[in-house]
Design brief:
Blueprint: E1 6-11, H1 18-29, E2 34-38, H2 39-45, E3 50-52, H3 54-60, E4 63-68, H4 70-80, E5 86-91, E6 101-102, H5 106-114, E7 119-129, E8 135-138, E9 141-146, E10 153-159, E11 162-169, E12 171-176, H6 183-186, E13 198-204, E14 214-217, E15 222-226, E16 233-237, E17 240-245, E18 250-264, H7 270-278
Amino acid sequence: MSVVETVGLVLHPRRDSKEAIDTIVKWASARGVTVFGLTDEVGRIHCSAVPVNTQELVERCDLLVSLGGDGTMLRTMRLIAGRPTPILGVNLGKLGFLAEIDVDELTSALQAIEDYHYMAEPRMAIRATLPDGETVTAFNDVAMVRIPGCGLAAVAVSVEDHPFVRYAADAVIVATSTGSTAYSFSAGGPIVSPMVEGFLVVPSAAHSAFNRALMLSADEKLTLEVLPTSGQLALEVDGAVGTHLTAGDRITVTAVRAAAWVVRLGGSSFYERARRKLRVNGSAEIEP
């Protein structure tokens, strides 16, 4: 019996996924595998996947296939957070960090999964508790970002309830190892292996004397408080605005180990993808 009896699809809202879906449906039909998709997504493109709601997709699928780019992969990871279901990322656009394969590799990738010739790589998430007690989960980053015209982000940082630093910046970014190549990287943060269990605190365009990033253990609790001198801030979760914060608001951030599992087939390493995506080259003064 195949290790996969049900496959769930998560689709990019705009990119053409017909070729990929046809490949998956053909592979599944030959093996008696059921293909599910979110009702609004499969209805939009009129594919033959069985429409289900989010809860059914999460609970009934042995494998999730994300068709899009890194944003679609992040959304898929948030959907399945806390469950061991592996996620195969299929790239439909420009090169990303999270998607494992391109569409033309899909058939061989599904066969490799069927034959157990793959690894499921754990990805850590961060969970932020908001002032109203609500929690949000991010696999790349949570960022407190200044709103144009409202002044700087003035934020006090405490670790394990011990005050450490106050930043005045355009944003204060809390990033996972996975997210170290995203917003955090553009703010000057380091590239961190996705296998490292810890998270970064990185100021963007800091106006304070201390402008360095912090690296925290996955066992440590981070508290961020909006200071009286701060303007109103947007709280972004994996790049989408979740809420707004004002002076006195406080959020706490903790790590969630192995919150999602990503299929790896061994075709390319994180460092190869990073070199290509970030166009990493050596010094022009040093010959290879």
